[in-house]
Amino acid sequence: MSVTPPPLPGTKQLRVAQALNVFLPGDGLFYLGKRVAGSVLAGAFVCCLVTMLTLFVVGYAHYWSIALSENLLEGNKLEEAAGAFHQGWLLALAGVGLVIYAISAVLFSRAKREVSR
Fold first, then answer.
1. Distance (Å) of CA 16 to CA 11, 19, 51, 81, 91
2. Structural domain count, the chain
3. 108 inside domain
4. Is residue 34 in a domain?
5. Which of 96, 117, 113 is nearest to 25 (CA)?
6. pTM for the full model?
7. Rg (CA), the chain
8. Of 100, 102, 104, the residue nearest 29 (C-alpha)
9. pLDDT tens digits, residue range 3-59?
């Protein structure tokens, strides 16, 4: 019965780094020692995510205030309700987040090759 020994202290586990990088882009890079690149990518991703959530919640609150008002068909309230969510900004931030995710995946792949050597 062969039992594999646990990793030596100080060695990096690639599966842990990969899981970290999937859940938060740049975190796996930070774990592998690429601290500056990992911090920049993780920080930018978190900023995009927080900004998207803030815009959505504010838009949602604005939408409900319009929808629950006295007379929805009065004036231009329907047009305001349609524009409450700032779709352009949300899509742009989602696109930036995807680009950050892709950059993180490429840099993680390179860092993984360096660690494997």
1. 11, 5, 28, 44, 31
2. 1
3. yes
4. yes
5. 96
6. 0.80
7. 22
8. 104
9. 776 654 456 688 899 999 999 999 999 999 899 999 999 999 999 999 999 999 999
User: pLDDT tens digits for 47-95?
Assistant: 999 999 999 999 999 888 888 887 777 778 778 887 888 889 999 999 9
Residue 1 inside a domain? The answer is no
Token pair 């938060």 is at which residue?
24
Question: Is residue 29 in some structural domain?
Answer: yes
How far is the C-alpha of 23 from the C-alpha of 101, rounded, in Å? 10
DSSP string across the chain:
---PPPPPTTPPPHHHHHHHHHHSTTHHHHHTT-HHHHHHHHHHHHHHHHHHHHHHHHHHHHHHHHHTSS-TTSTTHHHHHHTTT-HHHHHHHHHHHHHHHHHHHHHHHHHHHHHH-
Can you give the residue range of the structural domain that contains 27?
14-116
pLDDT at 35: 93
What's the confidence (pLDDT) of residue 85?
A: 84
Q: Which amino acid is at 48?
A: C
Locate 105 and state its tokens. 């995946």
- Cα 44 from Cα 33, distance rounded (Å): 18
